[in-house]
Design a protein that fits this description.
6-stranded parallel beta sheet; 3-stranded parallel beta sheet
């Protein structure tokens, strides 16, 4: 056990007897309210640390036991979307990572700020240190590079090592997850590292103390030019891609649309509200080919426009006007 802990004097002190205690504390202090947990022999430390924290009054997310990894990650994505805060999952070694399935794609393409944690088969020789191998299967559980399983679908991945500060690592990963563009991050937690002893306390910066990166802003001259195009246009339109993933954006889009009387259209594969669907300006815009000025918000781009009418679907106002609502399936072209 370490008797003294080197740390920055600006970091706060938190109760912790093992590294896993610091991990759950940093999660909660970083905005994580729920840890969606799928059991595994090498990740029981999550259950122990959450129960301990609840008993001692230390910060911890609520642990929710889930029977399958895909369900766990989808639940985390939904909670993160509703709360506009990160959530976390914990699953069993490489097979747990693979069992996330299509939810991995959803997490990445939907820009969901989720901390994906995965255990790893112990490497330490049986009996050498706490958390070392104690089952025959643990000799064959770990691939050469477990992080590679999800590396293409995360903003960053890290394997917790003995030289790390566990609370700092979690805070850093949550900082990255919540900085624009938001997205999932991946942490591999060896059992030996999670069970390293601490002297009843630990020190680390929280996610907010590290600071979430500020959103990028357009050059003022470009913003003025775009505004002028919209003002002068005879047939302008706003196409909202995934702008609604930041809830505060919705009111600003409404404000702009009402100020300039701009129709607003959703793009293809919308997964949340971008603009009130009962608003008079919703669904009334021109086809992309007929617009002379387009404001594209969080649209994914391709080389060419490809748009199609949604068969049998009409917005309320478009129905009254007898026009099919058209959604944009791709994004590109000479537009704002």
């Amino acid at each position: 056990m370490v008797d003294t802990i080197s740390h920055d004097a600006r970091w706060s002190e938190y109760g912790a007897e093992e590294w896993s205690d610091a991990l759950v504390a940093a999660m909660k202090l970083g905005g994580v309210d729920h840890l969606f947990f799928v059991s595994g022999s090498e990740i029981a430390f999550w259950q122990e640390s959450v129960a301990k924290a609840q008993e001692k009054g230390w910060p911890t997310p609520k642990l929710i036991t889930v029977p399958h990894e895909s369900v766990a990650l989808n639940a985390a994505l939904g909670s993160a979307m509703i709360r506009n805060q990160p959530e976390a999952t914990a699953v069993h070694v490489d097979v747990g990572s693979l069992n996330y399935g299509g939810a991995i794609h959803t997490a990445w393409r939907g820009n969901y700020p989720v901390l994906i944690t995965v255990g790893t088969g112990p490497r330490a020789y049986p009996g050498s240190i706490p958390g070392s191998r104690n089952s025959a299967v643990q000799w064959v559980q770990e691939p050469r590079d477990q992080g590679a399983i999800l590396r293409q679908y995360t903003k960053i991945d890290h394997r917790l090592e003995h030289q790390d500060n566990p609370g700092l690592i979690v805070s850093r990963l949550l900082q990255v997850a919540m900085s624009e563009p938001k997205g999932p991050v991946y942490l591999t937690v060896p059992r030996e590292s999670a069970m390293l002893k601490l002297p009843g306390k630990t020190y680390f910066p929280t996610r907010d103390e590290l600071g979430i990166a500020r959103p990028a802003y357009p050059d003022p001259s470009d913003a003025r030019r775009a505004a002028q195009w919209l003002i002068e246009a005879r047939n302008p339109c706003i196409y909202a891609g995934t702008a609604g993933r930041n809830p505060e954006s919705v009111a600003e889009i409404v404000r702009l649309a009402e100020l300039l009387a701009l129709p607003v259209m959703d793009t293809d594969r919308v997964d949340r509200l971008n603009f009130p669907t009962i608003h008079p300006l919703y669904g009334t815009g021109p086809d992309v080919k007929d617009a002379d000025a387009l404001l594209l918000l969080y649209c994914r781009t391709t080389r060419r426009w490809n748009f199609r009418p949604i068969s049998g679907f009409r917005s309320r106002r478009a129905r009254r006007r007898g026009r099919f609502m058209t959604r944009l399936q791709g994004c590109s072209s000479k537009a704002i």
